[in-house]
Amino acid sequence: MSAAFDVLVIGGGAVGAVSAALLSDDRQRRVGLIDLKRPQMPDADSDFDPRVVAISPGSRNILSAVGAWQAAPPDRLAAFTRMSVHSGSGSIEYRAAEHGLPCLGWIAEIPTLAAAAWSALETAGRVELLAGSRLENIDFGRDRITLTLADGTRLTARLVVAADGARSRLRRLAEIETDSWHYNQHAVIAHVECERTNPGQCWQRFTDDGPLAFLPLPDGRSSIVWSLPSEQARQLQGAGNRATRRALNRAADDLPFGRVVAVGQVYALPLIRRQARSLVDGRLVLAGDAGRTVHPLAGQGLNLGLLDAAALAEVLDDWTPRQDPGESLARYDRWRTSAGAMVANGLHAINELSAERTGLGRRLMGLGFAAGARLWPARELFVQRACGLDADSPRLARGQNGRSAA
Ligand SMILES: Cc1cc2nc3c(=O)[nH]c(=O)nc-3n(C[C@H](O)[C@H](O)[C@H](O)COP(=O)(O)OP(=O)(O)OC[C@H]3O[C@@H](n4cnc5c(N)ncnc54)[C@H](O)[C@@H]3O)c2cc1C
User: Fold this and answer.
1) What atom of ligand 1 comes closest to residue 59's alpha carbon?
2) Measuring from atom 50 of ligand 1, which residue has the nearest CA?
3) Three-class SS of residue 113?
4) What is the topology classification, in CATH, of domain 182-271?
5) Burial, 247: exposed, middle or buried (Cβ in 10 Å; 0-12, 13-18, 19+)?
């Protein structure tokens, strides 16, 4: 293998794999994708992975444009057509049909999405897939970057995309600082069974302890995400099935699918908000969790990352490898920093307000939801934004560029 690439993407999660596919659309660019290992498609009869995410229609358009959506097994995707959020005595509900949409999004497993993106890359045959490689080091040159892998292989690229996740090694090697906020919360995640099947509804309540969401799984169960103070999350994780059921039923006593009757394995993940001070350093660009992580209460992290991938492809549409990408990357930096900050700040404010001890914050939010429910233009704006279909979203997310979802 010769070592000179035009674009190298480090990190083949969903964001990195989609970035590589979009940047290779122009056949004149030599593009490579590097990851520690190739993501595997789950066996047809295996249980759903605990790492599930809500995918917006905009993200679906992006995944479709590279063939990844078509490569994901449909029976591992759950569409949701309703979403309701409750706080204090107020609530707001969104229905897809009221906004002219077939659904508001899908619940999907992260490994399935990544494996589907790799499978689409293999089918298209335009990206060199370097699975089983670990990025170790990086040297910045004036018109190319040299990367060293763990086995000593040296590769060069005119442009490097760091999509190597929240603890990005590339970000650290480039000495790009981050602003971080430890929420002192863990997200408790588990798959649960309720008295009635979940018909395709996302339901969320801001409980006294933290936001608790029930997301539909394709088999009628729900996946829960409960952001709790870290100590409480750890206790719940070790509490056993019965105690967890009881805690869930106390916190979600008005769940529309009845009581929780069975709880699968419980996991707890620390919640940290991070924002890289810059998404670009010379010919290095950060995408996805490498550039930012946000509170999961609105399920936006991967959606933001896929919008990064589409935005990067859009600003580099006319770029040829001999040109300096500086101006295009500066545009990407401004665009995605401000879009990401708007979401991260909003989620941060909601989480802080809802965690206010006296319960006043949750009551105020409930009043806000009740008032917002009647403000049609605001609702419509919110849905367009949350679905990745608003004017600030990349063209591909809005289904433009002739590459729209089928
Ligand atoms: C509890 C919880 C719930 C969430 N819910 C949602 C949701 O509903 N909707 C949503 O949109 N988002 C959600 N998110 C966020 C979402 O999970 C992440 O934003 C997303 O998975 C990040 O994808 P990524 O491709 O950027 O990074 P990753 O998936 O972390 O991929 C990084 C890749 O880089 C590779 N890598 C790392 N280091 C190296 C190296 N040195 N060399 C080579 N390869 C390397 C890794 O192997 C990995 O494959 C949630 C997050 C949490 C914690």
Assistant:
1) 11
2) 296
3) helix
4) D-Amino Acid Oxidase; Chain A, domain 2 (3.30.9)
5) buried
- Residue 289 CA to ligand 1 center (angstroms) comes to 6
- Give nearest CA residue, ligand 1 atom 15: 301
Over residues 45-49, mean pLDDT: 94
Beta strands in 150-235 (DSSP E): 154-162, 178-194, 201-206, 211-216, 222-229
Q: What is the pLDDT of residues 179-203, one digit of tens each?
A: 999 999 999 999 999 999 999 999 9
CA 371 to ligand 1 center in whole angstroms: 35
Q: What is the pLDDT of residue 337?
A: 97
Q: How many CB atoms lie within 10 A of CB 97?
A: 11
Q: Is 326 helix (H, G, I), strand (E, B) or coil?
A: helix
Q: What is the pLDDT of residues 59-116, one digit of tens each?
A: 999 999 999 999 999 999 999 999 999 999 899 999 999 999 999 999 999 999 999 9
Secondary structure tally for the chain: helices H, strands E: 11, 20
pLDDT per residue over 227-251, tens digit each?
Answer: 999 999 999 999 989 999 999 999 9
Q: Where are the domains of the chain?
A: 4-78+108-180+275-386, 182-271
The matching CATH number, chosen from 3.50.50.60, 3.40.50.300, 2.20.25.420, 2.60.120.290, for 4-78+108-180+275-386 is 3.50.50.60
Residue 303 scores a pLDDT above 50: yes
Whole-structure pTM value: 0.96
CA 166 to centroid of ligand 1, rounded, Å: 7
